[in-house]
Structure prediction request, 841 residues.
Amino acid sequence: MSSETLDLREQLEEAPSIAPAEHAHSHHHGSGHDESHDSHSEEDELPEVNFIRKYVFSTDHKTIAKQFLISGIIMAIVGLLLSVLFRIQLAWPQEDLGILRPILGKWINESGQLDPEFYLAMVTMHGTIMVFFVLTAGLSGTFSNFLIPLQLGARDMASGFINMLSYWFFFASAVIMTYSLFLETGPAGGGWVIYPPLSALPQAISGSGMGMTLWLISMALFIVSSLLGAINYISTVLNLRTKGMSMTRMPLTIWAFFVTAIIGTLSFPVLFSAALLLIFDRSFGTSFYLSDIYIAGKALENHGGSPILFQHLFWFLGHPEVYIVLLPALGMTSEIISTNARKPIFGYRAMIGSILGIAFLSFIVWAHHMFVTGMNPFLGTVFMLLTLIIAVPSAVKTFNYLATLWGGNIRFTTAMLFSIGLVSLFITGGVTGIFLGNAALDIPLHDTYFVTAHFHLVMGSASAFGFFAGVYHWFPKMFGKMMNDRLGYLHFWLTFISVYLVFFPMHFMGMAGIPRRYYAASTFDFTQGFTNMNIFITLSAILGFSGQLVFLYNFFGSIFKGKKAPLNPWNSNTLEWTTPHNPQHGNWEGQIPAVYRWPYDYSKPGVNNDYLPQHIPDGAIQDWDHNPANASLLYDENGNRVADTPAAHH
Amino acid sequence: MQQEIKIEEPDFRIHPKKVVLWVSMVSIVMIFAALSSALMVRQGEGNWNYFKMPPMFWITSGLILLSSVTMQWSLVSLKRESFPNLVTGLWITALLGVAFLAGQFMGWMELVNMGVFFRDNPSNSFLYILTGLHGLHLIGGLIAVIWVLVKAILFRYRANKMLGVELCATYWHFMGALWIYLFLFLLYHYS
Prediction:
């Protein structure tokens, strides 16, 4: 282990005991000079770490965040490409799709028809990749890793090593999942929810064999990765906050990441249990989920199991997973909307309360995914009631966003557009949640395109918008460069318009009873009226996909050729903007700033600037007001400038 | 509200590694909670096998309770800097842990002799899954006990430097409590 890690660990181990003493010390002397001494001098002596330790097996949370970001983007390209491919099949099921042969190879037969089982596999893999690899690992992995230490004023995560493990478990898991796309028998094809018996019997469909095995191995690694990450996030938030950073002064981003991590530690183990029993059913002849099954007229030995049991276990993870995906996006939106409206977030405590409320409720609503499994109607009513109650904290968040925007001095940065877009999608998709949460309405709508439309808007697209908002907002801190705004606007409008064009019509298809996951909508009379609409949706999806190419060009182009970013490009209040350009491992070169206020002091009366960062004490407002451009000026609690501010030299 | 300059250091901060351990234990609790509730849902659907718990499980319950006592004794000995007692206590704990695992395995043998096979009705499979998964987690604890024992023999601990022993003791007590819960749960659901 390098001395760098040891240094950080020492700092972590000493931090709890030293901090109060330091505080008392500086209080008497009115200068933070002494406390900055130890960390600064130690870091000067850091030896250069080699390339592999710095960029590959790094324990620096910022590098790990970028690794998650790039991996997430690559997985998103794979997932989006799959969706474009199966959308093409849905639009032109009768046509010769021979032009796709270079991509799909043998899955297009001689007459140019897509293999139906591979269609199911693509739908399955699209769901799996998007939900877990992009919106869970790509989103939480990137921004929890990047922002938790930076916004809390910590030098790194509680354990950089566990953090590194978390990424590499994810990496292995992503490689295995992607590899399964190239199997001779195809990847898993039973839907991303992997309901038995399709997932439990290797002989059921071609994707149930090796494809399903790899799916399970990949997800086992993924669960380990998520748990290692979540454990780290929780202990960092609880232990490594800088001086003055009480829980009620944390940015809402951190609250969202923190609660997301708690949800993850409570729900992923349940998926592990479900998968464990599934593995025993598949490979060791038990019958947890299997009973009285005939394959090709022959009865299997399994008896006494219940496939519904799997659904209970799966959705106990599955529903909280929705909020694992969504809450980080909502947290970042709170931060970005407040910053760019130049107004304090409306209802800070209500926001925290609604995050906690959503988290709590998310654990007791899982059976609303199972209204059609023949459950007791009374039980269905209970779950319906609990589900509809989620509308309350969700509405609190929505109204708070709108109230924050109201009367604000709004700057339409790209990140701001995506955040407002998120609020729009959250409302549109959330309203249909009220329909689907109602057992009586869910029974006809279940497994139709209405459901597809609902969760793509409220969970998929809204979270993706949060992801984009986060990338545009924190790109300057991640890479020291600005992203191009014009390309950003183009990306936003292409994405925003195409998302609505793709998913809004699906509501009508769902109400007409078109089932999801069908290979072609041309088989039955009642589905044929939607042929043109399917073509329209597919064209819109291709439009949306091309919008993402703009993003890719902007993202990778800006890393190399972007305009150099100022230290605090958005005039934001949070601590990450006090770090120097391209911060080293350890984040702050000198002392860590202490925190004297909440993160949302925008347009504060009596302050000339329309923002007042968290690390500025009241006594220093006057002095800081005249030097705001120097983002890294540090003060002690009496308002005296701290002499040693190395970051200021940059 | 946000104006006060006074900086309060929260006093509740505990060592990050303890938080990591506690959060990990919560994850483990959720694994067993999921399996327990799966068992209850499955039992509610009928076609459930009832049978007597193997007598060996009563003995192993005694062993693991005793090992918790010796683990705690080790911890207290370390607090008093009584190093021979620390080492003795950890030795006994480790041996009791091994005896527990051996006893669990003999319990499985007794089950097989009673005709309760793993690959049969899920009621049987659940019993093996729950006890087996607990055993696996206990092996992890046993490795930790042996690790701490080696470090204790090498005099790496002091009364003011006992984090490793504390973490190990917490996890070991947790394993004991988990087994007692599981055993009561199984007794209730199979008789």
Summary: Chain A has two domains: 61-561, 567-650. The beta strands of chain A are 294-295, 298-299. The domain at 61-561 of chain A is CATH 1.20.210.10 (Cytochrome C Oxidase; Chain A). The longest helix of chain A spans residues 116-152.
